[in-house]
Design brief:
heterotetramer; A: alpha/beta; seven-stranded mixed sheet; three-stranded antiparallel sheet; 15 helices; 12 strands; B: globular; binds pyridoxal-5'-phosphate
Chain lengths: ~375, ~130, ~375, ~130
């Protein structure tokens, strides 16, 4: 069976060039970058080069990059690190209702520890408005965390405008750029953010490695204490191979970003158009401020996981905001925050395109989905023709 | 994640549909939680002679609905009433632990249908 | 120039079989283990198998293993996680003076957050006594963290005895087994510990991955909040390749552990004996309760980093507790805790052997070191013949 | 980590040793911090005509000791006194930032030696 992968927002394959860049650091170049001898210096050099590359690609300085174990650690470090370091200045944090759980749950845990939290709502397209953020800010607000683009519905937030509002109030601003790194421009000066987190495995790099940008002058308590690595802000022997892979993947992504995005937008729109032909179907998220690769729809009267299983039986890999895929009872908090009812939110399907997809894939998917939807609706007690 | 037997019932669900002259109908779950099961039974001389279902829900919900129709058919209503969600899961060679509670409503749907049948019988004999 | 690596306590090369086990998960098997489709299920299966293997090798159950980004994260999660989860029960933590900074700095940070800390001293061999631990325990002690073997001087602690003392008082016991995993028996039931952390790159696995054992029933607040991975105790898309590599490396280590240890002990003792011929030399750590691969000596009148640089010029990779290698002013806290003076502690040299070392390496090192020591002493204002 | 020039001075340190008839000796640092530098100078007509050092310390400490002997020799003591730690680091094409403070005591050792020389001269002329 032909397998078609359409879940690039969940993770991406590691590009061959990236694997090749990593391999020496599993082989002969295994030195600990903290060591003074040859092996150590060569690892250190690879690490320095990776740091230079990543910082350059996001418009930062090398000293402003902390390598992490991924997007979740980056968000946790940004949020808890700033909260702990500035708790004497204030204990109020602002975030949005559509953040990834790495952000939301960090913020909610801090709440349990005595911080105060305001969660800003979104509109029906999943958009955060700068005015709502402004309303939420207080004199004791120390940090605002709003994601760059949403991982479920692909809505791109007005980060620049929000950053301006936040800066005006003297709070720090973190953005979770896990879904946009390698896709959109994440120049930190342009965006005006103080902290930005990204993850390699979402941009054709390896799993288990990421980076956190921290603007010079912003203090952080470490999440992981210990050795003096990463300028004492993140202890632990560096994942040299992974970090080299991250830098290579980000570099490759930038080489043909514009062409690739244009190609993806075409495929995406073809897919969106085709899906809209299915009756009782709702497109989720903004059609204008949208990631080039994201399609998110709800098919009324059916449940997402049974959709996914049927797609899988036909070799199509996709994802859902269905409660059943996460083992919880509630469907996607993102779709609910956008005002969808539980019933409809349960029937969501996310298809996220990538480098390995082409028109034939889209056409195959558009041929299969209506059949599956029809079959499941036939089985549904909610559906009356 | 799912056993072969779950996938078999999911891909080839038995007894999907409605029974126009059913004498018992049970519905459990709600759309809020993402699972609704509706069961139609036809009972003759206390024996379930026909049974059909419609389900809105995940793979486990569909498979448990399907398998319980096979387990119930030919049984007396007293016997069928004894079927537990646990037995349904066992008949499917197990369910993932996260699915045990939220998506295994089949036994409850069957009980609801049998209760509905009994109510109908009582109403008919009273009239 | 022939390069001889004698710093296996710092990091180890990844074994070829380990790299090969990892490769598929960079290539075709890139699925996110949380996904329901084929790619996801295959990744999940690899993850489950790795978890089974690791848990089996340490005598635990699969559900008791949390995969981490390394030894530092493991220690931080164990210590802060337990501290946060049980802070209403008590706020007292006990550790030792010779712990790795991942443990020491976690404990000291908690102190800043309002916990109370007792640091147990060690004897001149770097040994923690169960009696000293017992003395430190209080009714409000919630956690004790004592390392299994020390990374600098190789002293192996009486973990079983300490664990018994701690259990008797109803506190939890964490051991940092980063230096012993793959080398000594770390059966958690035998040791009697509640938490145990290990790191892949110290046992011929990849950098940036580790495991934390948490006995069933011990609660932990996550260090990294977010997705439901690792039974909600450690969020973030799993480093599948790294985790597979960790399991493979641990498995391989267990295959020939006894033979390899016997071989290393012979090499180690040959090295120790040779170094003792050099005048004004002190062997550090226990000669009896010692890691099979650890040699740690102080050469009086000279400083460790200049020693390392000279060794490096001859192709020998080693390490030092010298202040100058860490950028601090104080030499190794471990050597100071063992009662060495600053002067002597500055002149320490650590040679840690591994699979790639043989007798010829030992002899070469024993030929070079006396020359270097003599040369540096000639240059030293402290040295009078 | 270290520049080629540092490594050159570290591997081939210039002017190691003592001067038996030195007329100025300077010693700075302490063993506690892991760095001790001792400098011997021979001054004739206010010019440093010979200089030697012994150093206990790391690579940077040895290299800075070595290079300052080259920088100082042939200079008048007034000129030599002006040499700063920063100039020593520059002469070595830079030092790692962690080494700038703890291991670059060379200029201070030279100043100490010159002061010792001045004291000796004063003492001699007084007697
Ligand atoms: C005893 C000990 N604990 C913890 C660590 C930290 O492990 P990692 O570098 O994998 O974070 C190390 C090594 O650096 C160690 O030797
Ligand atoms: C928006 C967003 N933030 C954070 C994360 C977490 O990244 P990671 O899985 O690398 O920890 C993800 C993906 O899982 C994401 O999509």
């Amino acid at each position: 069976m032909n397998e078609i992968y359409m879940d690039h927002a969940a993770t991406t394959p590691v590009r061959q060039e990236v694997v090749e860049a990593m391999l020496p650091f599993f082989g002969s170049e295994y030195g600990n970058p903290s060591s003074v001898y040859g092996w150590g210096r060569r690892s250190r050099q690879a690490l320095d080069q990776a740091r230079d590359k990543v910082s350059e690609l996001i418009g930062a300085e090398a000293s402003e990059i902390i390598f992490t174990s991924g997007g979740s650690e980056g968000a946790n470090l940004a949020i808890k690190g700033v909260a702990w370091a500035y708790q004497t200045k204030g204990k109020h944090i602002v975030s949005s209702a559509v953040e990834h759980h790495a952000v939301l749950d960090s913020v909610l845990w801090l709440k349990k520890q005595g911080f105060e939290v305001t969660i800003v709502p979104v509109d029906e397209e999943g958009m955060v408005s700068p005015a709502e953020v402004e309303k939420a800010l207080r004199p004791d607000t120390i940090l605002v965390s709003i994601m760059h683009a949403n991982n479920e519905v692909g809505t791109i937030q007005p980060i620049k405008e929000i950053a301006e509002v936040v800066r005006g109030h003297g709070a720090f601003f973190h953005t979770d750029a896990v879904q946009t790194a390698g896709v959109l421009d994440i120049n930190v000066a342009e965006l005006g953010v103080d902290l930005l987190s990204l993850s390699a495995h979402k941009l054709y790099g390896p799993k288990g490695v990421g980076a956190l940008y921290v603007r010079k002058g912003v203090r952080l308590d470490p999440l992981i204490h210990g050795g003096a690595q990463e300028r004492r802000r993140r202890a632990g022997t560096e994942n040299v191979a992974g970090i080299v892979g991250l830098a290579k993947a980000l570099e490759l992504a930038h080489l043909d970003r514009d062409e690739e995005n244009a190609r993806l937008v075409k495929l995406r729109d073809r897919l969106l158009e085709g899906l809209q032909q299915i009756p009782h179907t709702k497109i989720n998220g903004s059609l204008v401020h949208r990631l080039p690769n994201n399609v998110n729809v709800c098919f009324q009267y059916i449940e997402g996981e049974s959709m996914l299983l049927n797609l899988d039986l036909r070799g199509i890999a996709a994802s859902s905001g269905s409660a059943c895929t996460s083992g919880s009872l509630d469907p996607s908090h993102v779709l609910l925050a956008m005002g969808l009812t539980h019933e409809i939110a349960h029937g969501s399907l996310r298809l996220t395109l990538g480098r390995d997809n082409n028109e034939a894939d889209i056409d195959f998917v558009l041929q299969e989905i209506p059949v599956i939807v029809e079959r499941l609706r036939e089985m549904s007690p909610l559906y009356q023709r | 994640m799912y056993s072969d037997k779950v996938m078999d019932h999911f891909t080839n669900p038995r007894n999907v549909g409605e029974i126009s002259d059913a004498n018992g109908i049970g519905e459990v779950g709600n759309a809020r939680c993402g699972d609704i099961m509706k069961l139609w039974i036809k009972v003759e001389d206390d024996v379930i002679t026909d049974i059909k279902f419609k389900t809105f829900g995940c793979g486990a919900a569909i498979a448990t609905s399907s398998v319980i129709t096979e387990m119930a058919i030919g049984k007396t209503i007293d016997e069928a009433e004894q079927i537990t969600n646990k037995q349904v899961a066992e008949e499917l060679h197990g369910l993932p632990s996260v699915k045990m509670h939220c998506s295994n409503l089949a036994a409850e749907a069957l009980v609801a249908a049998i209760e509905d049948y009994r109510k109908n019988v009582a109403a008919n004999s009273a009239s």
